[in-house]
Structure formats: structure tokens, C-alpha cells
């Protein structure tokens, strides 16, 4: 897998990849009412491409993995105490880290996470923060194994889920 910045020409393939991932996540027990789709929304993807914040994993010409990292967090992030108190511009927020289900177990998610950590550090960031839905234990374990600390659990409403759910917040100091 080659990890690279997404380009405008990748847009259609990226949106198809994320739509497929929404369908897959909707089959999981932690989303008993299914996934409503639409995450990340097209405007978020376009902005991330324009700002070089969307990174894709490509194998044999196909997108098999992706993530977005920017400075935009749900307002619930402001309600808890983080490990460090720094301006929002010095904190990267990791979104929509996904790996094609046929590529699971190959370490691709771990490679994406290492790439995100390296990218944030190279850009002078002080920490990376993220949320992960309660009950999705595999990513929770991966984040811990890469030095992320569990901080708190908050309720967040995401349109693609369609109802407020509990999310675990994690942070890695860089």
C-alpha cells in the first residue's frame, strides 16, 4: 500500500470508498440501527483534498484506505479536559480512518495511523485527538497500541449514524 495525499481526480473514487465503508459499518453490532451513510460529507472531502488533509492508501490503482486529519472537532471535544491545553491550531483531529474490509488484518490501519502521527509531528502539532464510537473495540485497541490515551466518553450526534451515541475520546501527545 502506498499512502499519498488525495487529489481532485480521486474524488469520485474516494466518495465511493467511503460510501462502501458506511455500508460495512452499518452491519456492525455497535450500530444496531445501521449507518445512514454520508460520512464524510462531500464538502468535508473536498475541503480536505484542497488543504492536503485527506490521505489515501492505494494498492494496484485502487483506494483501499483513507483518513482525514484537520483541526475541526465536534463541540463535545470542548467539554472535557485533555492531557494538554494548547490552541486548536496545534492539535490535529483524526477523522474517518478506514480500511477496506477485504484488506483487514494486514496492518494497513496501523500504517495509516503511523502516517498520521508522523504527518502531525512534521507539521509541528502538539497532539492528535480522535473519537471512536463505543463498542468498536478493535480500533480502541489499535489506538492504545500506538500511544493514544483514553481521555473521556462523550455523547456526539453524527448525521451518518442518525442519533446521539457515546464516543470514546483519545489523545496522543507528540
Q: How is this structure best described in words?
A:
This protein has about 170 residues and is an alpha+beta fold. It contains four helices and seven strands. A seven-stranded mixed sheet has the order 1-2-3-4-5-7-6, with helices on both faces. A hairpin with a 6-residue loop joins strand 6 (about 150-155) and strand 7 (about 165-174). The longest helix is centred in the first third of the chain and has 16 residues, at about 10-25. The model has no long low-confidence stretch (mean pLDDT about 90).
Shape: globular
The secondary-structure element order is EHHEEEHEHEE
DSSP E strands, number = 7
Structural class: alpha+beta
- Binned, the helix content reads 25-40%
- How many H/I helical runs? 4
Secondary structure elements and pairings:
Elements: E1 2-5, H1 11-26, H2 42-50, E2 54-59, E3 62-70, E4 91-99, H3 108-122, E5 127-133, H4 137-145, E6 149-157, E7 164-173
Parallel strand pairs: 4-5
Antiparallel strand pairs: 1-2, 2-3, 3-4, 5-7, 6-7
Pick out its properties.
alpha+beta
Summarize the structure.
This protein is α+β, with helices and mostly antiparallel strands and 174 residues long. The protein is built from 4 helices and 7 strands; from the N terminus they run βααβββαβαββ. It has helices spanning 11-26, 42-50, 108-122, 137-145, and strands at 2-5, 54-59, 62-70, 91-99, 127-133, 149-157, 164-173.
